[in-house]
Amino acid sequence: MKVAVLGATGMVGRTFVRLLENHPWFKLGALVASERTAGKRYGELVEDAPEEFRDMEIVPLGEFLKEPDVDLVFNALPASISREVEERLAEQIPVFTNARAHRYDDDVPILVPEVNPEHLKLIKIQRENRGWDGFIVTNPNCSTAVLTVSLAPLRRFGIKRLHVATMQAISGAGFSGLSALAIQDNVIPLIEGEEWKIENESRKILGRLDGGRIIPAPFEVSAIATRVPVLHGHTEAIFIELERGSVEEIREAFEAFDPLKELGLPSYERPLVYADVPQPRLHRDRGKGLTVTAGRLEKSGSAFKYVVTGHNLVRGAAGGSLLNAELARRMGYI
Ligand SMILES: NC(=O)c1ccc[n+]([C@@H]2O[C@H](COP(=O)([O-])OP(=O)(O)OC[C@H]3O[C@@H](n4cnc5c(N)ncnc54)[C@H](OP(=O)(O)O)[C@@H]3O)[C@@H](O)[C@H]2O)c1
Questions:
Q1: How far apart are CA 233 and CA 313, in angstroms?
Q2: What pTM, to 2 d.p., does this model score?
Q3: Which of 25, 51, 115, 235 is the most exposed place for a label (fewest CB within 10 A)?
Protein backbone atom coordinates (compact mmCIF):
# COMPACT_ATOMS: atom_id res chain seq x y z
CA MET A 1 0.00 0.00 0.00
CA LYS A 2 1.23 3.45 -0.88
CA VAL A 3 1.20 5.89 2.06
CA ALA A 4 1.91 9.58 2.65
CA VAL A 5 3.26 11.31 5.76
CA LEU A 6 1.81 14.79 6.33
CA GLY A 7 4.09 17.01 8.39
CA ALA A 8 7.04 14.83 7.39
CA THR A 9 9.66 17.40 8.45
CA GLY A 10 8.42 17.76 12.06
CA MET A 11 9.32 15.75 15.17
CA VAL A 12 6.53 13.21 14.70
CA GLY A 13 6.75 13.18 10.89
CA ARG A 14 10.46 12.32 11.00
CA THR A 15 9.70 9.46 13.34
CA PHE A 16 7.06 8.12 10.94
CA VAL A 17 9.53 8.26 8.06
CA ARG A 18 12.15 6.38 10.07
CA LEU A 19 9.64 3.70 11.11
CA LEU A 20 8.43 3.26 7.53
CA GLU A 21 11.88 2.31 6.26
CA ASN A 22 11.62 -1.27 4.94
CA HIS A 23 8.05 -1.62 6.20
CA PRO A 24 6.58 -4.84 4.74
CA TRP A 25 3.03 -3.47 4.16
CA PHE A 26 3.35 0.32 3.72
CA LYS A 27 5.50 1.98 1.04
CA LEU A 28 6.23 5.67 1.48
CA GLY A 29 4.93 7.48 -1.62
CA ALA A 30 4.74 11.14 -0.55
CA LEU A 31 6.37 13.43 2.01
CA VAL A 32 4.11 16.40 2.62
CA ALA A 33 4.83 19.65 4.50
CA SER A 34 4.36 23.41 4.15
CA GLU A 35 5.29 25.89 1.41
CA ARG A 36 8.34 26.71 3.56
CA THR A 37 10.03 23.38 2.76
CA ALA A 38 8.20 22.49 -0.49
CA GLY A 39 10.42 21.27 -3.34
CA LYS A 40 13.43 20.60 -1.08
CA ARG A 41 15.02 17.16 -0.93
CA TYR A 42 14.20 15.34 2.29
CA GLY A 43 17.90 14.60 2.90
CA GLU A 44 18.65 18.35 2.76
CA LEU A 45 16.19 19.01 5.57
CA VAL A 46 16.65 15.94 7.74
CA GLU A 47 20.30 15.06 8.27
CA ASP A 48 19.70 11.53 9.52
CA ALA A 49 16.98 10.67 6.98
CA PRO A 50 16.94 7.01 5.86
CA GLU A 51 19.02 6.55 2.67
CA GLU A 52 16.08 5.37 0.53
CA PHE A 53 14.07 8.57 1.21
CA ARG A 54 16.84 11.20 1.00
CA ASP A 55 16.11 12.18 -2.62
CA MET A 56 12.34 12.45 -2.25
CA GLU A 57 11.03 16.00 -2.68
CA ILE A 58 8.69 17.63 -0.20
CA VAL A 59 5.23 18.08 -1.69
CA PRO A 60 3.34 21.17 -0.42
CA LEU A 61 0.10 20.31 1.37
CA GLY A 62 -2.13 22.28 -1.03
CA GLU A 63 -0.80 20.41 -4.05
CA PHE A 64 -1.05 17.02 -2.31
CA LEU A 65 -4.69 17.60 -1.42
CA LYS A 66 -5.63 18.25 -5.06
CA GLU A 67 -4.65 14.70 -6.03
CA PRO A 68 -3.64 12.49 -3.10
CA ASP A 69 -2.31 9.55 -5.06
CA VAL A 70 -1.90 7.23 -2.04
CA ASP A 71 -3.95 4.52 -0.28
CA LEU A 72 -3.52 5.78 3.28
CA VAL A 73 -2.28 8.85 5.16
CA PHE A 74 -0.37 9.31 8.40
CA ASN A 75 -0.95 12.82 9.75
CA ALA A 76 1.60 14.74 11.83
CA LEU A 77 0.40 18.28 11.05
CA PRO A 78 -0.46 20.84 13.71
CA ALA A 79 -3.98 20.39 15.12
CA SER A 80 -4.97 23.88 13.93
CA ILE A 81 -5.04 22.80 10.27
CA SER A 82 -5.79 19.10 10.74
CA ARG A 83 -9.59 19.05 11.03
CA GLU A 84 -10.28 20.20 7.51
CA VAL A 85 -7.37 18.29 5.96
CA GLU A 86 -8.34 15.01 7.65
CA GLU A 87 -12.01 15.29 6.71
CA ARG A 88 -11.19 16.01 3.10
CA LEU A 89 -8.87 13.00 2.87
CA ALA A 90 -11.15 10.64 4.81
CA GLU A 91 -13.83 11.04 2.17
CA GLN A 92 -11.60 8.74 0.09
CA ILE A 93 -8.93 7.03 2.20
CA PRO A 94 -8.05 6.03 5.76
CA VAL A 95 -6.35 8.69 7.89
CA PHE A 96 -4.28 7.78 10.96
CA THR A 97 -3.60 10.94 12.89
CA ASN A 98 -1.61 12.29 15.82
CA ALA A 99 -3.46 15.58 15.87
CA ARG A 100 -6.16 16.17 18.46
CA ALA A 101 -8.68 17.69 16.01
CA HIS A 102 -11.03 14.65 15.89
CA ARG A 103 -10.16 12.84 19.13
CA TYR A 104 -13.29 13.93 20.95
CA ASP A 105 -15.82 13.23 18.18
CA ASP A 106 -18.28 10.53 19.26
CA ASP A 107 -17.73 8.42 16.15
CA VAL A 108 -13.91 8.63 16.09
CA PRO A 109 -11.81 6.23 18.18
CA ILE A 110 -8.74 7.21 20.18
CA LEU A 111 -6.94 3.96 19.65
CA VAL A 112 -4.14 2.27 21.58
CA PRO A 113 -4.07 -1.18 19.95
CA GLU A 114 -3.17 -3.15 23.05
CA VAL A 115 -5.74 -1.32 25.20
CA ASN A 116 -8.96 -0.80 23.21
CA PRO A 117 -8.77 -2.64 19.86
CA GLU A 118 -12.57 -3.15 19.94
CA HIS A 119 -13.06 0.62 19.49
CA LEU A 120 -12.11 0.09 15.83
CA LYS A 121 -15.76 -0.90 15.40
CA LEU A 122 -16.56 2.85 15.44
CA ILE A 123 -15.19 3.00 11.90
CA LYS A 124 -18.38 1.43 10.54
CA ILE A 125 -20.54 3.99 12.39
CA GLN A 126 -18.28 6.87 11.33
CA ARG A 127 -18.56 5.84 7.68
CA GLU A 128 -22.36 5.58 7.93
CA ASN A 129 -22.64 8.95 9.71
CA ARG A 130 -20.41 10.80 7.30
CA GLY A 131 -20.81 8.92 4.03
CA TRP A 132 -17.05 8.41 3.69
CA ASP A 133 -15.14 5.66 1.89
CA GLY A 134 -12.18 6.31 4.18
CA PHE A 135 -12.15 7.03 7.93
CA ILE A 136 -10.22 8.75 10.72
CA VAL A 137 -8.47 6.92 13.57
CA THR A 138 -6.67 9.06 16.14
CA ASN A 139 -4.09 8.16 18.73
CA PRO A 140 -3.93 9.86 22.12
CA ASN A 141 -1.62 12.62 23.19
CA CYS A 142 1.80 11.28 24.13
CA SER A 143 1.48 11.17 27.91
CA THR A 144 -1.95 9.50 27.72
CA ALA A 145 -0.55 6.80 25.43
CA VAL A 146 2.14 5.89 27.97
CA LEU A 147 -0.31 6.06 30.88
CA THR A 148 -3.06 3.90 29.34
CA VAL A 149 -0.67 1.10 28.40
CA SER A 150 0.08 0.78 32.12
CA LEU A 151 -3.60 1.08 33.16
CA ALA A 152 -4.89 -1.61 30.81
CA PRO A 153 -3.63 -4.58 32.86
CA LEU A 154 -4.99 -2.96 36.04
CA ARG A 155 -8.61 -2.91 34.83
CA ARG A 156 -9.21 -6.34 36.34
CA PHE A 157 -8.48 -4.93 39.83
CA GLY A 158 -11.24 -2.31 39.49
CA ILE A 159 -9.76 1.17 39.00
CA LYS A 160 -11.46 3.63 41.39
CA ARG A 161 -9.38 6.80 41.08
CA LEU A 162 -5.94 7.89 39.93
CA HIS A 163 -3.61 10.87 40.15
CA VAL A 164 -0.74 11.31 37.75
CA ALA A 165 2.15 13.78 37.68
CA THR A 166 3.99 13.81 34.35
CA MET A 167 7.59 14.75 33.59
CA GLN A 168 7.46 15.31 29.85
CA ALA A 169 10.33 15.52 27.39
CA ILE A 170 11.16 18.57 25.29
CA SER A 171 10.51 16.82 21.97
CA GLY A 172 6.84 16.56 22.97
CA ALA A 173 6.53 20.26 22.18
CA GLY A 174 7.46 19.84 18.51
CA PHE A 175 10.49 20.94 16.54
CA SER A 176 10.45 24.59 17.50
CA GLY A 177 8.34 24.25 20.62
CA LEU A 178 10.49 25.43 23.53
CA SER A 179 13.43 27.78 23.75
CA ALA A 180 16.60 26.29 25.23
CA LEU A 181 16.71 29.14 27.72
CA ALA A 182 13.25 28.32 29.04
CA ILE A 183 13.85 24.63 29.69
CA GLN A 184 17.57 24.36 30.51
CA ASP A 185 18.11 23.96 34.28
CA ASN A 186 14.37 24.14 34.83
CA VAL A 187 11.03 22.38 35.34
CA ILE A 188 7.92 24.02 33.86
CA PRO A 189 4.73 22.90 35.60
CA LEU A 190 2.39 24.02 32.82
CA ILE A 191 1.69 22.43 29.44
CA GLU A 192 -1.30 24.18 27.95
CA GLY A 193 -4.31 21.84 27.63
CA GLU A 194 -2.34 18.71 28.53
CA GLU A 195 -4.02 17.91 31.85
CA TRP A 196 -7.50 18.07 30.33
CA LYS A 197 -6.33 15.74 27.54
CA ILE A 198 -4.90 13.18 29.98
CA GLU A 199 -8.02 13.23 32.14
CA ASN A 200 -10.48 12.89 29.26
CA GLU A 201 -8.62 10.86 26.65
CA SER A 202 -7.68 8.14 29.16
CA ARG A 203 -11.33 7.72 30.19
CA LYS A 204 -12.46 7.49 26.56
CA ILE A 205 -9.75 4.93 25.73
CA LEU A 206 -10.61 2.79 28.76
CA GLY A 207 -14.30 3.31 28.11
CA ARG A 208 -16.88 0.81 26.91
CA LEU A 209 -18.35 0.67 23.42
CA ASP A 210 -22.11 0.57 23.87
CA GLY A 211 -24.85 1.17 21.31
CA GLY A 212 -22.50 2.73 18.79
CA ARG A 213 -20.79 5.15 21.18
CA ILE A 214 -18.15 5.07 23.88
CA ILE A 215 -19.17 5.41 27.50
CA PRO A 216 -16.10 6.86 29.26
CA ALA A 217 -14.61 4.80 32.09
CA PRO A 218 -16.28 5.89 35.35
CA PHE A 219 -13.16 6.47 37.46
CA GLU A 220 -11.70 9.87 38.34
CA VAL A 221 -8.40 10.94 36.78
CA SER A 222 -6.48 13.96 37.99
CA ALA A 223 -3.27 15.12 36.29
CA ILE A 224 -0.45 17.60 36.74
CA ALA A 225 1.73 17.97 33.64
CA THR A 226 5.28 19.28 33.79
CA ARG A 227 7.98 19.78 31.16
CA VAL A 228 11.50 18.68 32.15
CA PRO A 229 14.88 18.98 30.40
CA VAL A 230 14.84 15.46 28.91
CA LEU A 231 15.16 15.10 25.14
CA HIS A 232 12.81 12.15 24.53
CA GLY A 233 10.70 10.00 26.87
CA HIS A 234 7.83 10.96 29.14
CA THR A 235 7.97 9.76 32.75
CA GLU A 236 4.85 9.67 34.93
CA ALA A 237 4.33 9.14 38.67
CA ILE A 238 0.96 7.48 39.28
CA PHE A 239 -1.05 7.08 42.49
CA ILE A 240 -3.95 4.71 41.99
CA GLU A 241 -6.81 3.39 44.11
CA LEU A 242 -8.06 -0.08 43.17
CA GLU A 243 -10.96 -2.14 44.44
CA ARG A 244 -8.72 -5.14 45.06
CA GLY A 245 -5.23 -6.51 44.34
CA SER A 246 -1.81 -6.68 45.94
CA VAL A 247 1.63 -5.42 44.90
CA GLU A 248 2.54 -8.96 43.77
CA GLU A 249 -0.63 -9.33 41.68
CA ILE A 250 -0.19 -5.92 40.06
CA ARG A 251 3.41 -6.63 39.17
CA GLU A 252 2.41 -9.99 37.69
CA ALA A 253 -0.30 -8.26 35.65
CA PHE A 254 2.24 -5.72 34.30
CA GLU A 255 4.66 -8.50 33.39
CA ALA A 256 2.06 -10.70 31.71
CA PHE A 257 0.53 -7.92 29.57
CA ASP A 258 1.16 -8.84 25.94
CA PRO A 259 -2.32 -8.92 24.38
CA LEU A 260 -1.71 -8.81 20.62
CA LYS A 261 1.33 -11.01 20.27
CA GLU A 262 -0.57 -13.62 18.22
CA LEU A 263 -1.63 -11.12 15.52
CA GLY A 264 1.76 -10.87 13.78
CA LEU A 265 1.64 -7.09 13.34
CA PRO A 266 4.96 -6.06 11.73
CA SER A 267 5.78 -3.33 14.28
CA TYR A 268 4.41 -5.07 17.37
CA GLU A 269 6.64 -5.19 20.43
CA ARG A 270 5.85 -6.21 23.97
CA PRO A 271 3.94 -3.13 25.22
CA LEU A 272 4.93 -3.20 28.91
CA VAL A 273 7.89 -4.44 30.94
CA TYR A 274 8.86 -4.02 34.59
CA ALA A 275 12.11 -2.46 35.84
CA ASP A 276 12.97 -1.47 39.39
CA VAL A 277 13.74 2.17 38.54
CA PRO A 278 12.29 3.32 35.17
CA GLN A 279 14.25 6.16 33.55
CA PRO A 280 13.82 7.78 30.13
CA ARG A 281 17.47 7.68 29.07
CA LEU A 282 17.81 4.00 29.94
CA HIS A 283 14.40 2.67 28.93
CA ARG A 284 12.76 4.84 26.23
CA ASP A 285 14.18 2.82 23.30
CA ARG A 286 13.04 -0.55 24.59
CA GLY A 287 11.03 -2.42 21.98
CA LYS A 288 12.15 0.13 19.36
CA GLY A 289 10.40 2.81 21.42
CA LEU A 290 7.05 1.00 21.66
CA THR A 291 7.64 -0.61 25.04
CA VAL A 292 6.57 1.26 28.15
CA THR A 293 8.55 0.53 31.32
CA ALA A 294 6.76 0.42 34.68
CA GLY A 295 8.47 0.18 38.07
CA ARG A 296 8.83 1.55 41.63
CA LEU A 297 5.56 -0.21 42.45
CA GLU A 298 4.64 0.08 46.13
CA LYS A 299 1.64 0.18 48.40
CA SER A 300 0.86 3.71 49.57
CA GLY A 301 -1.71 3.77 52.38
CA SER A 302 -4.84 2.23 50.91
CA ALA A 303 -3.63 2.97 47.35
CA PHE A 304 -0.65 2.02 45.17
CA LYS A 305 2.03 4.09 43.51
CA TYR A 306 4.25 3.37 40.52
CA VAL A 307 6.29 5.12 37.82
CA VAL A 308 6.18 4.61 34.03
CA THR A 309 8.37 5.89 31.24
CA GLY A 310 7.86 5.62 27.48
CA HIS A 311 9.02 7.18 24.22
CA ASN A 312 6.77 10.14 23.40
CA LEU A 313 7.54 10.18 19.67
CA VAL A 314 7.23 6.41 19.14
CA ARG A 315 4.77 4.92 21.67
CA GLY A 316 3.19 8.37 22.16
CA ALA A 317 2.92 9.36 18.49
CA ALA A 318 4.23 7.84 15.23
CA GLY A 319 4.82 4.28 16.47
CA GLY A 320 1.37 4.10 18.06
CA SER A 321 -0.25 5.45 14.90
CA LEU A 322 1.61 2.97 12.69
CA LEU A 323 0.50 0.14 14.97
CA ASN A 324 -3.08 1.44 14.68
CA ALA A 325 -2.87 1.18 10.89
CA GLU A 326 -1.40 -2.31 11.09
CA LEU A 327 -4.20 -3.43 13.41
CA ALA A 328 -6.87 -1.88 11.17
CA ARG A 329 -5.41 -3.72 8.19
CA ARG A 330 -5.19 -7.01 10.08
CA MET A 331 -8.83 -6.60 11.16
CA GLY A 332 -9.95 -6.01 7.57
CA TYR A 333 -10.80 -2.29 7.79
CA ILE A 334 -8.28 -1.42 5.09
N1 LIG B 1 5.83 15.80 19.55
C2 LIG B 1 5.11 14.85 20.16
O3 LIG B 1 5.63 14.12 21.04
C4 LIG B 1 3.67 14.61 19.79
C5 LIG B 1 3.03 13.53 20.38
C6 LIG B 1 1.69 13.24 20.05
C7 LIG B 1 1.04 14.05 19.14
N8 LIG B 1 1.66 15.12 18.59
C9 LIG B 1 0.89 15.89 17.59
O10 LIG B 1 1.45 15.58 16.30
C11 LIG B 1 1.38 16.72 15.44
C12 LIG B 1 2.79 17.07 14.97
O13 LIG B 1 3.59 17.43 16.10
P14 LIG B 1 5.16 17.72 15.99
O15 LIG B 1 5.63 17.74 17.38
O16 LIG B 1 5.79 16.76 15.01
O17 LIG B 1 5.17 19.20 15.33
P18 LIG B 1 6.34 19.98 14.56
O19 LIG B 1 7.66 19.39 14.91
O20 LIG B 1 6.11 21.42 14.82
O21 LIG B 1 6.05 19.66 12.99
C22 LIG B 1 4.97 20.22 12.29
C23 LIG B 1 4.94 19.71 10.86
O24 LIG B 1 3.78 20.26 10.20
C25 LIG B 1 4.17 21.00 9.04
N26 LIG B 1 3.34 22.19 8.89
C27 LIG B 1 3.15 23.20 9.80
N28 LIG B 1 2.28 24.12 9.30
C29 LIG B 1 1.91 23.66 8.08
C30 LIG B 1 1.05 24.15 7.06
N31 LIG B 1 0.36 25.30 7.21
N32 LIG B 1 0.89 23.42 5.91
C33 LIG B 1 1.57 22.27 5.76
N34 LIG B 1 2.42 21.75 6.66
C35 LIG B 1 2.58 22.43 7.83
C36 LIG B 1 5.63 21.36 9.25
O37 LIG B 1 6.22 21.52 7.96
P38 LIG B 1 7.42 22.59 7.64
O39 LIG B 1 8.70 21.98 8.14
O40 LIG B 1 7.36 22.68 6.15
O41 LIG B 1 7.05 23.86 8.35
C42 LIG B 1 6.15 20.12 9.99
O43 LIG B 1 6.39 19.09 9.07
C44 LIG B 1 0.70 17.83 16.25
O45 LIG B 1 -0.67 17.83 15.97
C46 LIG B 1 1.00 17.42 17.70
O47 LIG B 1 0.07 17.94 18.60
C48 LIG B 1 2.98 15.41 18.88
A1: 8
A2: 0.97
A3: 51
For the domain made up of 142-311, give the CATH fold.
Dihydrodipicolinate Reductase; domain 2 (3.30.360)
Of 102, 119, 232, 234, the active-site residue reads 234
Contact by Cβ (8 Å): 307, 236 = yes
Q: Which fold has domain 2-141+318-330?
A: Rossmann fold (3.40.50)
Q: What residue spans define the domains of the chain?
A: 2-141+318-330, 142-311
Alpha-carbon gap, residue 280 to 299, rounded angstroms: 23
Nearest CA to ligand 1 atom 1: 172
pLDDT digits (tens, 9 = 90+) for 105-155: 999 999 999 999 999 999 999 999 999 999 999 999 999 999 999 999 999
Output the CA 251–ligand 1 centroid distance in Å: 37
| Closest residue by CA, ligand 1 atom 43 | 7
Q: For the segment 31-76, what is each residue's pLDDT rounded down to a tens digit?
A: 999 999 999 999 999 999 999 999 999 999 999 999 999 999 999 9
